From TrEMBL:
Gene (name only): nuoH
Native species: Thermus brockianus
The protein, known as: NADH-quinone oxidoreductase subunit H
GO molecular function, one term: quinone binding
Annotated compartments: Cell membrane; Membrane
Membrane topology reported for the UniProt record: Multi-pass membrane protein
GO BP annotations listed: aerobic respiration
Amino acid sequence: MNPYPQDPYWMVALKAFLVVVGLLTAFAFMTLIERRLLARFQIRMGPNRVGPFGLFQPIADAIKSIFKEDLVVERADKVLFVLAPLLGVVFALLAFGAIPFGPPGSFFGFHPWVVNLDLGILYLFAVSEMAIYGIFLAGWASGSKYSLLGSLRSSASLISYELGLGIALLAPVLLVGSLSLNDIVNWQKENGWLFLYAFPAFLVYAIAALAEAARTPFDLPEAEQELVGGYHTEYSSIKWALFQMTEYIHFITASALIPTLFLGGWTMPFLNVPYLWMFLKIAFFLFVFIWIRATWFRLRYDQLLRFGWGFLFPVALFWFLVTALVVALDLPRVYLVYLSALSFLALLGALFYSPKPVRKGGGA
């Protein structure tokens, strides 16, 4: 049963409108922020010509996308070709509405979320899975073999990391005893961040969320060197921009879900400023993901599948079984903290003490 009183329908509609406007604005400026950060990482100048400090660059990009010629290839399925980018944007926007940004009643006397769902985790999982239909339809409807290969890559690789992602979410669900995001945040407020109890699940979820957002090093569906442009090769103008919007909204949503599920959401042990803490946590993961893009290389298709089935899935399953054992036997939860610390130390050891690969054979 939902413990929070339902907001009036007009307020729910207003909050949904604010979420959509906020995400579209965030998408516009994240393109600028990412380009500026990548320029800093690569010791070059970023976009800084349009407006003061380049702040009007997103507006210029939007105008360019709107007024570019909108081409539809002759062999394309016209209806599905137009429907595909719209589906991606809709499902990407739906996922953000269930994330709580503050304590109940803190948004001018209303709740700081669009809707509080008792099955919030299942809702997020279902909505994120539906987004693949936009990518698959884009490849199928384009009438291009490169687009089709890109969409098939997405569909096949989806299973390899989504299974690990789903099982990783079961560890916090078992500890909290609820699928509601609000219940998960409130449990962390009372007992400490779930990151401390389930570090392996946190690691698996963060990596799988990066793959779900199709960010480097998991941006295989649009591998330019192999597939020209991936599933949106034949798209141009505003429809191409919609695919970019979908990717960035997934990117922002993943950066909001990680702190919500594992880092206490809007809570902090000190300074009760929930909206500020939530914003800073989201900004931190956005920065980390951009940093990874600037410094990491794209995995091969077979490497992604091997990584998903050989690392993400076994680690998530192992930690789920460990958590289930602790909960079933009603053991002290501090055992999970000790095991999480050991897993973190094991990860550090693997990173710093792994043998360097030896190149065989000669060469000039």
